[in-house]
Specification:
Blueprint (H helix, E strand, L loop, with lengths): L5 H15 L4 H70 L15
Length: 109
């Protein structure tokens, strides 16, 4: 991100030594280190939250896709059941009518 070399750090240290002074420099350095550490922890926390939210969103999309697939599979099953019913109805219609071997009561005499 930032390309800071040794020479830039040395120059920063010398300028801060001259501006802040040798007696307050260690306290300011500790305070700066504290805030840099806190900033890094905050950034790491935000990155973790973003990563978690992205994973949750990805899982939500996968679940929606699976739900859509389940609906399609259910529709296919219903269509297959309808096709089977139609085929059985057609087969029943194509079979020749069986003659009625039992005579009605008025013809029995």
């Amino acid at each position: 991100m930032f390309e800071i070399g040794f020479s830039e750090l040395l120059m920063l240290g010398l300028v801060s030594l001259l501006v802040i002074g040798p007696e307050r420099l260690p306290k300011v350095a500790r305070l700066a280190g504290f805030w840099v550490g806190k900033l890094q922890k905050t950034i790491a926390g935000v990155k973790a939250e973003i990563r978690h939210e992205l994973q949750v969103e990805e899982m939500r999309q996968l679940m929606q896709e699976k739900t859509g697939l389940d609906e399609y599979q259910q529709a296919i099953k219903e269509a297959n059941a309808s096709i089977a019913d139609i085929k059985s109805s057609l087969q029943d219609a194509q079979e020749p009518a069986k003659p009625n071997l039992i005579k009605p009561p008025h013809e029995a005499e």
